[in-house]
Design goal:
15% strand; TIM Barrel; single chain; two-stranded antiparallel sheet; globular; binds flavin mononucleotide; 8-stranded parallel barrel
């Protein structure tokens, strides 16, 4: 087999600090433990399980708003626990880090929710406490309820949010990369000098959306800038990804669709002077594994019967920005431009002209583990299909679950050993920060990344 086909496949476990992340209806099962999301042991146990399975990272989604597009209110979301109630993802990380040594922690934070000065310090704190194991999923928010809760009249327009995100990242980069010199911290006990004042400087940012005149409050952390994830796939979203992302999170109902998203981003990176190898493409994926194919199918069929129609539509309408409550379940859904996640409707319409998706099809598709495809079968069958996806151009997967922790247990016990035997999954961890583990090189951003360009000489 050519070596390209044996390259290692990356795996993140996709989760959220709430009862229903992506499987509306399944939380009621006795074997689903997400109602324990308020207990630290729930999270530290998951982190240990995933580290045993050599996952690269736990990837935590988040929204700061409620899903109130479906029917024009949040009733369905609240009743079915569709991402509400939802607790903060960042606060879980120190506990999970203390329970593990290597696994990374990706968390989502919207540019709407913190001023960049506050956010940069939170991230540096986490990067210190985890010894460089954090990644930030940069999101721009898609729920109007978010805007109202933060005192805005409405969400800024889709592309303007990306312009804000460009500036937000720029401020963070300068705080992380430029404010403290590498040799600023002396920790000189004999002289009683902790840091050299000449090596700590203000950033002086006066931009369109943010003003920061001051120095970063945290000393340089292992990675300085965290590993950067991004998930937007609209033309403006992929421009943003090409500028900033080190890992992209793509949705495609088929391997070729996901692979094409990654290829488009790599092309745009090339045009910007970034090496396309500096990004890893993670496809959204759901896996239902069983000892036999029949066993896996039986699980799938059982889950399928338990999907909450209202819960799935509450999520889908929030993601897409389109209220489908007036649609007949068998009505096809066409692409329309909205102010929300444009990729979402695109992936169910123009991205796959071979298929016409009805509302019911979408509910059945997203109801078990969210808006990505589901692989059902034995560990070998699943490993074969994952390899097909990688052959189509993705580097790894963000694995959503049907039941928690059962889906991850099945994967760790069944699929991981098969992939490891095939040389497709790591059997242990490299030392160092998350960036070093993912890219086998420096803990810091690559020189062609815009964060590196923020470093002025001392
Ligand atoms: C697979 C996927 C996962 C996402 N996860 C989150 C999330 O957890 N929180 C959030 O606020 N936005 C999330 N988003 C929204 C995107 O980050 C982005 O802000 C939004 O999709 C608008 O970009 P687009 O229209 O370019 O796709 C996600 C999007 C996708 C496609």
């Amino acid at each position: 087999m050519p070596s390209k086909q044996r390259k290692r496949i990356y795996f993140n476990a996709f989760n959220m600090n709430c009862v229903v992340h992506q499987s509306p209806g399944l939380w009621v099962r006795d074997d689903d433990h997400m109602v324990d999301y308020k207990n630290l042991e729930h999270w530290t146990g998951l982190a240990r399980l995933l580290e045993k399975g050599c996952f690269d990272a736990i990837f935590l989604a988040d929204v700061v708003g409620t899903y109130d597009v479906y029917g024009g209110n949040r009733n369905a979301a609240v009743a079915t626990a569709a991402q509400i109630p939802v607790n903060d993802p960042m606060l879980l990380i120190p506990a999970m880090a203390a329970a593990t040594r290597h696994i990374g922690f990706g968390f989502t934070s919207s540019i709407m929710q913190y001023h960049p000065f506050t956010f940069a310090r939170l991230v540096s704190t986490l990067d210190h406490l985890t010894r460089g194991r954090v990644a930030w999923n940069i999101v721009t928010s898609y729920l109007e309820s978010t805007a109202r809760s933060y005192g805005l009249k409405g969400l800024p327009e889709h592309d303007e949010r990306y312009a804000m995100a460009d500036e937000y990242c720029g401020v963070c980069y300068r705080l992380w990369e430029d404010s403290w010199a590498d040799d600023a911290v002396l920790c000189d006990r004999k002289r009683g000098i902790y840091a050299d004042p000449a090596k700590v400087r203000d950033i002086d940012h006066r931009g369109r959306y943010y003003t920061v005149q001051g120095c970063h409050l945290a000393e340089p952390s292992p990675q300085r800038t965290p590993v950067l994830f991004q998930a937007g796939a609209s033309p403006r979203g992929t421009d943003f990804a090409a500028a900033h992302a080190e890992c992209v999170f793509v949705i495609g109902s088929k391997p070729q669709i996901a692979g094409q998203y990654v290829a488009d981003i790599r092309e745009k990176m090339r045009a910007r002077g970034r090496d396309p190898a500096d990004v890893l493409g993670f496809a959204y994926m759901k896996v239902i594994a069983g000892g036999t194919e029949a066993e896996a199918r039986a699980k799938y069929n059982e889950y399928f019967e338990q999907i909450s129609y209202d819960g799935a539509l509450a999520l889908m309408c929030g993601w897409s920005g389109l209220d489908l409550s007036g649609y007949d379940p068998d009505q096809p859904v066409e692409y329309v431009d909205t102010n929300a996640i444009r990729t979402m409707l695109h992936s169910f319409s123009s991205a796959d002209p071979s298929r016409r998706w009805t509302v019911r099809d979408i509910v059945r598709y997203v109801g078990i583990g969210g808006a990505g495809p589901v692989l059902v079968g034995t560990p070998e069958q699943i490993a074969d299909q994952l390899e097909d996806w990688v052959a189509a151009g993705v580097d790894g997967f963000n694995l959503a679950y049907s039941t928690m922790p059962g889906s991850f247990e099945d994967f760790v016990e069944g699929v991981v050993p098969v992939l490891q035997k095939r040389g497709r999954m790591q059997s242990g961890y490299a030392e160092g920060s998350l960036r070093e583990k993912l890219f086998s090189r420096d803990a810091h951003v690559q020189p062609s990344h815009p964060a590196a360009a923020c470093r002025r000489p001392w």
